[in-house]
Amino acid sequence: MIASVRGPVRHVGLDHLVVEVGGVGLLVHTTPATASEGRTGAEITLETTLVVREESLTLYGFAGRDAKALFEQVQTVSGVGPRLALAMLSVHAPEAVRAAIATGDLAALTKVPGIGKKSAERLVLELKDKIVAAGVDPAALPVAPAGGDDAVATQVRAALEGLGWSAKQAADAVRTVTSAEGAPREVAAVLRAALRELGR
């Protein structure tokens, strides 16, 4: 099991990074927000989970142990695989996912592309007791900032479409969050704000 990786970033994609470890470039799938924090040539450390399938070995990376732990926990629920688990972390912060499950907030869970009402109910049924027992405080959900410009908006639209929203939904959300006066222009900020907008 590859538990973590550290090394210079060789490539930054919308939803992945290539990190060089011991002369080998490892493709690490991650959330768009985490990927956007990578800088080509700069060293990065990611907590990772290696998912082994008959036909592939896929490495998923996270900025911290909390996100990694949640990624692994939600996959104990029937029907939730690594792609869906990563989509959950792309839409919500780990504490927001836990709060939604702990409080039975199906509306928040179904904001994730690929999670319908039945899947959300199954997540709550199977994980609520475990999350509450772990002492999670289902208080306020995290708030995200807004921002962007044309180049950033294009990247964010592509990332949103990759997560399952339609081109129109992605474009409308980006337009809304980038029209605010004095909005920041970083990809991660625009993406978080767009995800929040889509979740309304």
Automatic annotation (TrEMBL):
Subunit structure: Homotetramer. Forms an RuvA(8)-RuvB(12)-Holliday junction (HJ) complex. HJ DNA is sandwiched between 2 RuvA tetramers; dsDNA enters through RuvA and exits via RuvB. An RuvB hexamer assembles on each DNA strand where it exits the tetramer. Each RuvB hexamer is contacted by two RuvA subunits (via domain III) on 2 adjacent RuvB subunits; this complex drives branch migration. In the full resolvosome a probable DNA-RuvA(4)-RuvB(12)-RuvC(2) complex forms which resolves the HJ.
UniProt keyword terms in alphabetical order: ATP-binding, Cytoplasm, DNA damage, DNA recombination, DNA repair, DNA-binding, Helicase, Hydrolase, Nucleotide-binding
Protein name in UniProt: Holliday junction branch migration complex subunit RuvA
Gene Ontology molecular function terms on file: ATP binding; four-way junction DNA binding; four-way junction helicase activity
Notes concerning its domains: Has three domains with a flexible linker between the domains II and III and assumes an 'L' shape. Domain III is highly mobile and contacts RuvB.
Family according to the record: Belongs to the RuvA family.
Keyword Repeat among UniProt keywords: no
GO cellular component, one term: cytoplasm
Stretch list, region Domain III: 154-200
InterPro entries: DNA_helicase_Holl-junc_RuvA_I, Hlx-hairpin-Hlx_DNA-bd_motif, NA-bd_OB-fold, RuvA, RuvA_2-like, RuvA_C, RuvA_C_sf
Subcellular location: Cytoplasm
Primary subcellular site in the record, as a coarse category: cytoplasm
Its job: The RuvA-RuvB-RuvC complex processes Holliday junction (HJ) DNA during genetic recombination and DNA repair, while the RuvA-RuvB complex plays an important role in the rescue of blocked DNA replication forks via replication fork reversal (RFR). RuvA specifically binds to HJ cruciform DNA, conferring on it an open structure. The RuvB hexamer acts as an ATP-dependent pump, pulling dsDNA into and through the RuvAB complex. HJ branch migration allows RuvC to scan DNA until it finds its consensus sequence, where it cleaves and resolves the cruciform DNA.
Domain annotation Helix-hairpin-helix DNA-binding motif class: ranges: 72-91, 107-126
Primary gene name: ruvA
Gene Ontology BP annotations: DNA recombination; DNA repair
